[in-house]
Every structure is written in C-alpha cells, then in structure tokens.
C-alpha cells in the first residue's frame, strides 16, 4: 500500500450521504474503502474527519495551452480539480487554423497567440501533452471554429458542401486520434453563419464515433429558448450525446427563461442524452464583442492588447474618459476580453438545483485580470451555494462535479471513491471551504482545501503546490 488516508468523511461521488471511512491507495489506484482498514502503508495520512471526495472534474475549460505549462493548471489544482475538459466553445488548440492567417481570429485568441497554434494535427497536440505530462488529467475536445477556419478563408458565410466535407475529414482525424468529442460556439463570429445543417452533419460523425457534442449555444440572451430548440433539433437528427455548456439567461429581458429551457431539456431527456453545465457566477466573460456587452449591468475589461492600462477598468468609465460610444471603445480596446455582469441569481440557483446540471469553471487562464471563476468556481458551489445558501446538499454538489460528470464523459474509472477507480482525491474542510477570488481580487487560491491527489500523487496541499512531479494523464477516447 502506498497511501492510507485514515478517518475521512468520504463523499463517494455518487450523491450518497457521506460515511466515515479509510481509503487505501496503491500506485495510481484506489484499492480499498471502508471503516478501520487493517492496512499498513508507506504513507499514512490522518484526515481527522475532514471530507474526502473524488477529485473534481472541470467539465468546461479553456486550458488547452496552459496544460502544456509547468504551473498552468495551478488555478485548477488549488480548487481540488484533478481533470479538465479542454477545447470548449468551438475553441481548441489543434488542428491549427493558422494557414494564411497572421493572428487567430477571436475568440481563438482566448487561449493563445499565433505561436500557440503550432499543432498541424489533433494527434500532435495529444502527443505533446503526453510527452509533457500535464498537472491534471486532460479530456480533449476538438473545436468547430478551428475546423471551420481550416476549411474556409472567409468565415462570414455558410459553408459549401465541399467545405463541410473538409471539416468532416479533419473531424474524423481528430476523433481517430482520441478527441473525446467536438465543441461548437455558434454565438461567436467564426461560427455565427454556420447553419443548423452544417452542425448536424458534423454531430452525426461525432455520434457515429460514440463521442460527445458540447455547445455554447447561438444565443444565451432573449433567444435562449430558440437556441435550446436548435440544440435539441441537432441532437435528435444526429443522435449525438449532447452537453449544453454554461447554461444561462443573459440580459434582464431573459431573466426567468430558465424555467422554460429546463422544462424543454427535461422533456428531451426522456428520449435523448442531453446534459448541461454551469459556472456559479452572474457575470460571464469572453473576448470583447459588442453584442455581448449589450444588456450588461456593467462591463469590466479583463485584458486589452493595445490598452493594457485599462485592464480591470469599467467600460462605461473608459467611454466617458475617451468621449466615445461603447462600440468605438470596444473597437479600440480589441483584441481584448471583458467580464459582463448580465445574469440573475434566480436563474443560476434554479439551473444549479436542476438534478442533471454539472459544474464547470469556464476559467480563462490567459486573462490578465481574469473572471474569479478561474480560481473559485468549485469552492464557490460547495461553500456559497451548497453550505451557506442550501441550494443543494453537499453530497449532491459533489456528485455534480465528480460521479455525474464522469458518467457524462464516459470516464469509467474516475469521479468516484471506490476500489478500482483512479486515486484522484481532494481532502477539504466542509466548514471552511470558500472561494477567495473576487472580481476585484481575482487571483486567489480557495480556502479550506487540505490536499489534492492526481493519480495517487499529492499535487497540492495547504494552499500551495507540493512540487511533486506532474502526474496528469491524457484521457483520450
Ligand atoms: Zn462558451
């Protein structure tokens, strides 16, 4: 036995109430779980009654490029995350969309500059990840924007049949290399003109390979109901397993529409595999786009290449200072990103309480002044929403970031504490766990996380990295 964690309050990831138990680990796997295990181990850790859960699975990330950096996944490890799903919202680092382009078209610049897009094929990215060994496990998706940008020079129109065929060829290569699925981001300029038929054709290939489709829907504002209808239409026509990303209702006119969208999803789940995720904040964050800024209570700049001095500043103040309107200010600040305060806590709590909903961070690791979700999403669900507000019981909140997520991702040996599962574990104090990152001070590790093990190796403890060699695996399909 390499590790014995004694006297923990074990939340096994299934949603069952916790039980006092010991957990025995051999190498990278859990070998026994039970009260008073009569085992000797090279290392014994007394949990002193703290909560022990499966390592959290961040189902929605943009960590593609930082997974290849030594400290790139520290924001995630610090929260207890041991697995990240990359390549969301249509944005993936591979295959490279840079032929004939000088800069990656927004929002591809969210995850890296031109030099980051250096992998000709999806398999090359996975090879690089394996050679590097990431700090967390990585579940890689391929993004529709890159498929589209490789097939088309002008993205502001529907694709021709030949262009769809070219995307399908690249998609087939990515799926063969081990992509867990495909993501789309129809709200963004590179895919705005993609028809439902184009998406359904690609989704059918994803379905045939038994993989997952994740979607940042076409409209998350007043048009969110018709966007859910489009999503369900694609799922029905293609038969693809579907994950609706960061479900939300943006802008005051859309507040409350989650009652309608959740009813639609619930009905669809009777015959189709539809899941959804959310991040626990009422502000969104992405690149600077005028339509996203509309309907926001407040917009704060998270990065700006031409005007780094404006990072953290309020867009309305910048407009006043420059004496220009919002569209002009945004044009001057680009390329850049922002935080858009535009949601209602009522919708957020309703979506979080909906049983199928999973938790993701949608953290943007490259932003100079990131949305606090990058460092705080998981502890915020456990502390603020589960413990303090009682929106869901703690064991339910944990299942939404472990066992349920693993089931959606078809990860058979992750997301649960049980013999035969991998030793991805997080030890935390349920009374103290709390997100410390705020909009004003966003780069702060959470409180209350005592230890985080990735494949049996202690990677994070008491607020800092342990310095142990990185131990994440590439969980290719
Ligand atoms: Zn998105």
TrEMBL record:
<protein>
    <submittedName>
        <fullName>N-acyl-D-amino-acid deacylase</fullName>
    </submittedName>
</protein>
<feature type="domain" description="Amidohydrolase 3">
    <location>
        <begin position="43"/>
        <end position="457"/>
    </location>
</feature>
<dbReference type="InterPro" id="IPR013108">
    <property type="entry name" value="Amidohydro_3"/>
</dbReference>
<dbReference type="GO" id="GO:0005829">
    <property type="term" value="C:cytosol"/>
</dbReference>
<dbReference type="InterPro" id="IPR011059">
    <property type="entry name" value="Metal-dep_hydrolase_composite"/>
</dbReference>
<dbReference type="GO" id="GO:0016812">
    <property type="term" value="F:hydrolase activity, acting on carbon-nitrogen (but not peptide) bonds, in cyclic amides"/>
</dbReference>
<dbReference type="Pfam" id="PF07969">
    <property type="entry name" value="Amidohydro_3"/>
</dbReference>
<dbReference type="InterPro" id="IPR023100">
    <property type="entry name" value="D-aminoacylase_insert_dom_sf"/>
</dbReference>
<dbReference type="GO" id="GO:0016811">
    <property type="term" value="F:hydrolase activity, acting on carbon-nitrogen (but not peptide) bonds, in linear amides"/>
</dbReference>
<dbReference type="InterPro" id="IPR050378">
    <property type="entry name" value="Metallo-dep_Hydrolases_sf"/>
</dbReference>
<dbReference type="InterPro" id="IPR032466">
    <property type="entry name" value="Metal_Hydrolase"/>
</dbReference>
């Amino acid at each position: 036995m390499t590790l014995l964690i004694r006297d923990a309050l074990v939340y096994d990831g299934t949603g069952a109430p916790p039980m006092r138990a010991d957990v025995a680990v051999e190498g990278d796997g859990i070998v026994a779980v039970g009260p008073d295990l009569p085992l000797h181990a090279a290392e014994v850790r007394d949990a002193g009654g703290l909560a022990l859960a499966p390592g959290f699975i961040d189902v929605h990330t943009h960590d593609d490029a930082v997974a290849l950096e030594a400290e790139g996944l520290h924001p995630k490890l610090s929260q207890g995350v041991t697995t990240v799903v990359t390549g969301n919202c249509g944005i993936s680092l591979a295959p490279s969309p840079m032929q004939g382009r000088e800069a990656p078209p927004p929002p591809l610049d969210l995850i890296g500059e031109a030099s980051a897009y250096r992998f000709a094929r999806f398999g090359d990215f996975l090879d690089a990840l394996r050679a590097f060994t990431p700090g967390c496990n990585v579940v890689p998706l391929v993004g529709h924007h890159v498929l589209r940008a490789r097939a088309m020079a002008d993205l502001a129109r529907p694709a021709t049949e030949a262009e769809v065929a070219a995307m399908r060829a690249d998609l087939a290569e990515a799926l063969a290399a081990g992509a867990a699925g495909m993501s789309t981001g129809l709200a963004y300029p590179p895919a705005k003109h993609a028809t439902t038929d184009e998406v359904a054709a690609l989704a059918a290939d994803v379905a045939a390979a038994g993989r997952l489709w994740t979607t940042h829907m076409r409209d998350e504002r007043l048009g969110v109901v018709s966007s859910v209808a489009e999503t369900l239409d694609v799922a029905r026509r293609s038969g693809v397993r579907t994950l609706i990303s960061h479900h939300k209702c943006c802008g005051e006119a859309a507040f409350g529409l989650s009652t309608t969208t959740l009813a639609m999803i619930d009905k669809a789940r009777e015959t189709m595999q539809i899941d959804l995720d959310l991040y626990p904040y009422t502000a969104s964050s992405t690149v600077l786009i005028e339509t996203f800024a509309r309907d926001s209570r407040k917009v704060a700049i998270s990065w700006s290449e031409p005007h780094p001095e404006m990072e953290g500043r309020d867009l309305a103040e910048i407009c006043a200072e420059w004496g220009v309107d919002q569209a002009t200010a945004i044009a001057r600040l680009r390329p850049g990103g922002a935080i858009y305060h535009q949601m209602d806590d009522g919708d957020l709590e309703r979506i979080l309480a909906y049983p199928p909903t999973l938790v993701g961070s949608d953290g943007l690791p490259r932003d100079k002044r990131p949305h606090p979700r990058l460092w705080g999403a998981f502890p915020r669900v456990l502390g603020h929403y589960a413990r303090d507000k009682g929106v869901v019981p703690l064991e339910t909140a944990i299942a939404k970031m472990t066992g349920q997520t693993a089931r959606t991702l078809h990860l058979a040996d992750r997301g649960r504490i049980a013999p035969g599962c991998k030793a991805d574990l997080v030890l935390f104090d349920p009374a103290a766990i709390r997100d410390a990152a705020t909009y004003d001070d966003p780069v702060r590790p959470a409180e209350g996380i005592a230890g985080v093990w990735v494949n049996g190796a202690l990677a994070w403890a008491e607020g800092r990295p342990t310095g142990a060699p990185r131990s994440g695996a590439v969980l290719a399909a």
